[in-house]
Write a structure and sequence with these properties.
270 residues, alpha/beta, Alkaline Phosphatase, subunit A, seven-stranded mixed β-sheet, two-stranded antiparallel sheet, 9 strands
Length: 270
């Protein structure tokens, strides 16, 4: 085992230790997000509040909001454990599809799995413009429903960095064996930019700027979409990201660290 992998194992042990510690710290969660007041809920994936605040150019009332999870699976399970047949969900994130498949329960009136047919193989993600196209083409069919739009950005891949992943984000939907899952957890297989940041191949300044660029990219598309939407529009995120805080990168499940659970809540002014 080389030095890099030894460091990865140590980081994972440290993350696991933090996660176990947080299980014994009492904290209050906000109500499930479906209970909040909105007609359109725009969810940015892995968008921390401080970076959003710095780059946001969409007018409205912005405040920090505490997420019910530090990663998408936890956020989804903690928010959508009951039926919400008043909601149509536009989903670009295959992790959401995996959670629905695992539970065997679809809580929504309808869900559009845009990642299934809108995946961009060049960028290894679903681009925001693809999400917009689906929303604009179909939204009028569900005028009596509330709607959630879940973009992948600013989640990696960071579109301004020429980094190819070992495998696509879409692969999270595949069924891995326990051994495969353990190897992926210990050695961070396929984590592209995060692996390079942890190894020092990309410095934090460059990585953080690329992350902020992803926020700008998705917000430009969100701004274009807003003109097509009626009612109360809220922009938020499922969780944040870490760039070396507490020696952790990305967004492990089960960590109630501020930068992971503090996300934006922007009530858009039209």
């Amino acid at each position: 085992m080389n030095d890099i992998r030894i460091k990865e194992v140590i980081r994972n042990i440290w993350t696991f230790t933090l996660r176990m510690g947080y299980k014994f710290i009492p904290y209050r969660l906000p109500p499930p997000i479906a209970e909040e007041d909105w007609d359109w809920l725009i969810v940015l994936d892995a968008c921390r509040y401080d970076d959003f605040r710095e780059v946001n150019f969409i007018e409205g009332e912005l405040k920090p909001y505490i997420s019910r999870g530090s990663a998408t699976p936890e956020w989804f399970r903690n928010n959508f454990y009951e039926e919400h047949k008043d909601i149509v969900y536009y989903n670009a994130n295959p992790v959401v599809a995996r959670e629905i498949k695992k539970s065997g329960f679809n809580p929504f009136y309808k869900i559009f799995h845009i990642w299934k047919y809108g995946w961009n193989d060049e960028f290894n993600t679903v681009l925001p413009r693809t999400v917009n196209m689906v929303v604009i083409e179909t939204k009028d069919k569900f005028k009596d429903k509330r709607k959630i739009i879940h973009y992948i950005q600013p989640h990696c891949p960071f579109l301004s960095l020429p980094i190819k992943r070992d495998e696509t984000f879409k692969d999270v939907f595949e069924d891995f064996t326990i051994i495969d899952r353990t190897r992926r957890m210990l050695f961070f297989y396929g984590n592209g930019v995060w692996k390079k940041l942890r190894a020092g191949e990309i410095d934090n300044y460059k990585g953080r700027n690329a992350y902020r660029k992803n926020i700008e990219i998705v917000l430009k598309r969100v701004q274009e979409l807003i003109s097509h939407l009626d009612g109360k529009i809220v922009i938020t995120a499922d969780h944040g990201n870490l760039f070396g805080e507490y020696f952790i990168y990305a967004h492990p499940v089960g960590l109630r660290i501020k930068k992971l659970v503090e996300v934006p809540w922007l009530e858009v002014k039209k």
